[in-house]
Amino acid sequence: MQYLVTRGEKGKVEVKVDVAKAGFIEAYGKVLKKLGTETKIAGFRPGKVPTEILEQKLGSGKLLNETAGTLVSKHLSEILSKEKLIPLDSPKIAIGSLSKASPFSFTATFTNKPQIKLGDWKKIK
Q1: How many Å apart are CA 62 and CA 8, to the nearest integer?
Q2: Helix (DSSP H) and strand (DSSP E) numbers for the chain
Q3: What number of other Cβ atoms are within 10 A of residue 6's Cβ?
Q4: Closest by alpha carbon to 34, among 24, 47, 25, 44?
Q5: Does the pLDDT at position 121 exceed 80?
Q6: In order of start, what are the domains of the chain with their CATH numbers?
Q7: What burial letters (b/e) apply to 37-56, b meaning 16+ CB within 10 Å?
Q8: Each residue of 84-120: pLDDT tens digit?
Q9: Strand blocks (E) in the chain
């Protein structure tokens, strides 16, 4: 994962994140496994459904969206703690291409909590 944090005026912060294709495929597999245990398909025990049938039943759109949501929440929370950013509002997420064949990228834009520096407050009476 690579990321770039751009700080703008009035506390605006933009975080651009690129996840390698291998990272996206790994997350896709985990989502597929998780949904496989939750989805009931006639003729199969939960968690024992072949991946081809599960992809066909759920649709690739749902699986890709679920994978994107998982990656966004995981990587964004990791970056926020690493860079010590505190969003005041919920981030606006813009997802790039959403495909198993290409790397995954997204951009999060939000307002960061401002740092307030107190003056010499002990002199105030």
Answers
A1: 34
A2: 3, 4
A3: 11
A4: 47
A5: no
A6: 2-123 (3.30.70.1050)
A7: eeeebeeeeeeebeeeebbe
A8: 999 999 999 999 988 888 899 999 999 999 888 888 8
A9: 2-7, 12-19, 92-95, 104-111
